[in-house]
Specification:
This is Sulfotransferase family protein. The protein has 14 helices and 7 strands. The N and C termini lie far apart (47 Å). The chain is 44% helix and 10% strand.
Length: 303
């Protein structure tokens, strides 16, 4: 195991370009990562934090001053062009990444689903890592988790209890406290996990650093080329690869709007209440950023 270096020795003063994409499970992260992997100047790295201390503490916020040497060592090595394989906890990284080590040229894309509560820690300690969020309508995320049987296996009672503890000690999540006093059905508990995790993550990165799963399905070339342009990558025609099955687990997508018929009218009304704090917060952040930039307020794709 140990450290796997890049094909060429890294310059000690040089740091590779890293784009860290994070979204909730079933947000379309594998689709987006798989599409970006098609670009000739990109390398794709699949969920290096799976089954590590990051995964084990996914519902716990890491304060920036808190020491986590193993994760810090992994990211430091990665930025220097090396992969610390002693850190990896699952073979998913080896099976689904497109390179053995970071490229010293081009862009290195890391796809993740577990760093919602590690966002500030990462940005403070590794400011050269570009962190971006993936937004998917949370009803679509919940629908996919339930349809594939992942809601109970990935986000059952232990996850709800863990997120409840975080909500109670995190002032930014106070809007969810009344919901914890209710008797929630299992699907409602998973909805609250989605909402609270995304809510706090959304407070740590600006609205312009989100990409929309729904918008990507409509115009993937525009969305992805706007994403990679700041990193110096040439435009690429991603659309021919859009409708391939990029899922690593679960059934192929049945469209962004399946949730509209998957849930009953009563459930949809209930989800309005559960997701209201998240969606209001994201729209407000988007509009505040628009006002600062002198642009019209619309709520963006968080509407």
């Amino acid at each position: 195991m140990g450290v796997h270096p890049s094909p060429r020795p890294p310059d000690p003063g040089r740091r590779v370009k890293v784009l860290l994409l994070n979204g909730f499970d079933r947000c379309g992260s594998s689709l987006i990562g798989g599409l970006l992997a098609r670009h000739p100047d990109a390398a794709y790295f699949f969920q290096p934090f799976n089954r590590t201390e990051v995964h084990a503490s996914q519902h716990e916020v890491w304060p920036p001053e808190e020491a986590h040497p193993a994760t810090e060592r992994f990211l430091s090595e990665f930025l220097a062009g090396r992969v610390d394989r002693d850190f990896l906890g699952a073979d998913l990284f080896e099976r689904h990444s497109t390179a053995a080590a970071p490229r010293l040229d081009g862009l290195n894309v890391i796809k993740e689903t577990k760093v919602h509560f590690k966002s500030t820690w990462i940005q403070r300690r590794f400011p050269s890592i570009a962190l971006r969020g993936i937004w998917r309508n949370p009803r679509g995320i919940l629908c996919s988790l339930l349809r594939n049987g992942f809601a109970s296996s990935w986000y059952g009672k232990p996850a709800f209890e863990a997120i409840s503890a975080t909500v109670r000690r995190t002032p930014e999540l106070a809007a969810y406290l009344p919901l914890l006093e209710e008797s929630l059905e299992p699907y409602e508990e998973v909805a609250l996990v989605i909402a609270a995790r995304t809510h706090l993550f959304g407070a740590t990165i600006p609205p312009e650093h989100w990409i929309s799963y729904e918008e990507l399905l409509l115009d993937c070339d525009r969305v992805l080329n706007e994403l990679i342009e700041p990193f110096g990558l040439a435009p690429f025609h991603f659309e021919p690869h859009l409708h391939r099955d990029h899922n690593v687990s679960g059934s192929p997508s049945q469209g962004a709007d399946l949730w509209r018929t998957f849930f009953s009218d009563r459930q949809l009304e209930r989800l309005e209440d559960l997701f209201a704090p998240l969606e209001v917060a994201m729209r407000c952040r988007n509009d505040a950023a628009a006002v600062t930039a002198g642009a019209p307020t619309s709520g963006g794709f968080f509407e």
